[in-house]
């Protein structure tokens, strides 16, 4: 019964992410496919949730209060998204696909289903990291608090651990667990585990559609090949290994969802740096990156700096001119992570402390 509830929660989450992403795309005039709109909705969801969660965490509010406030806001966001889509006059016509394309899309869907089943059903690895993260979630549910108790010992902390409290990712599972009475282990392993696999493949498909100029057959074939390599090329400490073994952890989301989406956005910027929609999408991914995973704290800035410098230097070698406008926009996209880094380093250096 609880597994059925988990599948319902996953389906509702996917639908809500799609509505959010599609509405934002309409509002900002982004031309995005359904898979990419769903991914955009995921990042928008955690961007908004992070703002609410951090306020509630640092003011030491109860978990049920976070759930109540967030559910109210979700209802408002849902109504606004539906209203936006209802008023949108640019209805996309569904194209009739060729038999070969339909076949490859079906093969891709079956491959994604197999990858989901492998990641969340056949994998029984639960390491110390996940036990600690799950302890934080379960303790928050049982004590109706957020990051006030230690996830491993269950004891009340003296100071809030900002290494974890700066991200709202696990508290998202906590409020759902409290509201639905479904154990946090089931929600994190099955709902968040399956979601990570689905989002990963949606991003690969969207990226392939961009590279192959909208060729669905090539995109479906690439996704299928990627899944086969992930399932059978067992190499330790790769993004694929994280996806198959730890898809329910924030680290797996960083490796397979956040970083690929950031690279995808940068690829679009390389193709057309003057199109503001590409920069807006990159900023959204950057803004939500820490909310999804604390591992993004340094990895996203490192990625953006490397890719931006590569572009700026290549342009300088061609024209002997510095791309100052490009650099300014890149710094704006880095700003959210730089703010998080400042707070984290003040905490790590003992200059900032939140007493419990």
Overview of the molecule:
- With 356 residues, this protein is an all-alpha fold.
- The longest helix is centred in the middle third of the chain and has 28 residues, at 184-211.
- The protein is globular.
- Helix content is 76%, strand content 0%.
- The relative contact order is 0.11.
- It is built from 14 helices and no strands.
- Helix 2 packs antiparallel against helix 3 (63-87).
List keywords for this structure.
mainly alpha; 0% strand; single chain; 356 residues
Briefly, what is this?
The protein has 14 helices and no strands. With 356 residues, it is mostly helical. Helix 1 (2-27) packs parallel to helix 8 (184-211) and helix 12 (276-292) runs parallel beside helix 14.
Helix and strand arrangement:
Blueprint: H1 2-27, H2 34-58, H3 63-87, H4 99-122, H5 128-143, H6 162-165, H7 169-180, H8 184-211, H9 216-232, H10 239-245, H11 250-271, H12 276-292, H13 296-319, H14 324-348
Helix pairs in contact: 1-2, 1-3, 1-8, 2-3, 2-8, 2-12, 3-7, 4-8, 4-9, 5-7, 7-8, 8-9, 8-11, 10-11, 11-12, 11-13, 12-13, 12-14, 13-14
Strand percentage: under 5%
Give the integer mean of the pLDDT values. 89
Which outline best applies? Answer: globular
How many helices? The count is: 14
Helix content: over 70%
Radius of gyration equals: 21 Å
Taken in chain order, the helices and strands follow as HHHHHHHHHHHHHH
Task: Please report the distance between the alpha carbons of the first and last residues.
Answer: 38 Å
Largest sheet: none
SS content category:
mainly alpha
Number of β-strand runs: 0
**Low-confidence residue ranges:** none
């Amino acid at each position: 019964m609880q597994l059925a509830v988990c599948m319902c929660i996953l389906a509702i989450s996917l639908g809500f992410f799609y509505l959010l992403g599609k509405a934002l795309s309409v509002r900002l005039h982004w031309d995005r496919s359904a898979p990419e709109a769903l991914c955009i909705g995921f990042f928008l969801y955690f961007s908004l949730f992070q703002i609410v969660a951090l306020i509630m965490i640092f003011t030491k509010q109860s978990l049920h209060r976070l759930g109540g406030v967030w559910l109210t806001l979700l209802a408002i966001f849902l109504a606004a998204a539906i209203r936006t889509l209802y008023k949108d006059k640019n209805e996309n016509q569904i194209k009739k696909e060729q038999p070969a394309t339909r076949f490859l899309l079906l093969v891709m869907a079956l491959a994604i289903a197999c990858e989901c089943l492998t990641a969340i059903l056949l994998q029984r690895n639960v390491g110390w990291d996940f036990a600690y993260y799950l302890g934080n979630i379960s303790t928050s549910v049982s004590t109706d608090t957020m990051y006030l108790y230690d996830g491993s010992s269950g004891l009340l902390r003296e100071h809030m651990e900002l290494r974890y409290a700066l991200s709202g990712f696990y508290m998202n599972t906590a409020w759902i667990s409290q509201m639905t009475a479904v154990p946090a282990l089931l929600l994190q392993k099955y709902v968040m585990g399956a979601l990570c696999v689905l989002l990963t493949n949606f991003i690969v498909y969207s990226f392939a559609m961009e590279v192959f100029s909208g060729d669905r057959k090539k995109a479906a074939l690439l996704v299928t090949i990627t899944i086969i390599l992930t399932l059978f090329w067992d190499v330790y400490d790769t993004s694929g290994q994280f996806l198959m073994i730890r898809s329910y952890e924030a680290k797996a989301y960083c490796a397979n969802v956040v970083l690929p989406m950031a690279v995808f956005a940068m690829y679009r910027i390389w193709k057309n740096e003057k199109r503001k929609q590409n920069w807006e999408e990159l900023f959204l991914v950057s803004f939500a990156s820490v909310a999804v995973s604390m591992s993004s704290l340094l990895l996203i800035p490192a990625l953006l700096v490397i890719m931006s410098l590569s572009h700026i230097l290549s342009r300088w070698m061609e024209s002997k001119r510095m791309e100052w406008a490009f650099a300014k926009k890149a710094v704006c996209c880095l700003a959210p992570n730089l703010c998080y880094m400042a707070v984290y380093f003040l905490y790590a250096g003992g200059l900032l402390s939140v007493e419990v």
